[in-house]
From TrEMBL:
Gene Ontology MF terms: ATP binding; sequence-specific DNA binding
The name this protein goes by in its record: Nif-specific regulatory protein
One example of a Gene Ontology biological process annotation: regulation of DNA-templated transcription
All residue ranges annotated as the Sigma-54 factor interaction domain in the record: 1-102
InterPro entries: AAA_lid_NorR (IPR058031), Homeodomain-like_sf (IPR009057), HTH_Fis (IPR002197), P-loop_NTPase (IPR027417), Sigma_54_int (IPR002078), Sigma_54_int_dom_CS (IPR025944)
Keyword terms of this UniProt record: ATP-binding, DNA-binding, Nucleotide-binding, Transcription, Transcription regulation
Gene name in the database record: nifA_1
Amino acid sequence: MRTLRVDVRVIAATNRDLEFEVEAGKFREDLFYRLNVMPIMLPPLRERVEDIPEIARFLVDKVSKMQGRPLSITDSALRILLHHGWPGNVRELENCVERAAVMSEDGIIDRDLILVSGVEERVTPLRGGGTVDLDDPGLDERERVIAALEQAGWVQAKAARLLNMTPRQIAYRIQTLNIKVRQI
């Protein structure tokens, strides 16, 4: 038997606190110090929400090359992605984008494909008790109706007044925009 020398660099990742594991006797101390030459701490995706659009677009480009067809993602789809908690981190985001791309017939990943691919739509609570500007041109119609419902405590008649609509009009919009009304 002869020894063969190799020059390799090991990159290892974990979601565990290895220092704690060493102290608890669950991880070898010598191996810890061998691996811990250059630690790189990456926060989970839920703590880097501002990076989600850029990462999602990168993943769309990657899937586009894999599928050999042009793909794009809409702003409303990105907004849904921003409000998800991502317990599975970047891998979960990648799976979501890939599932939506597979289901896309026209190469456009929209909010409905994101919802069908398993991401639940969440309405984020208003920070600090503030209100959303219902005249904000950045809001699409669905977001505007949801924001009005949030501000009105999910009372449709009050939300209709905020939007200068009749209760019948807002009920129609809730139905056509497929908004799940919260029961309070």
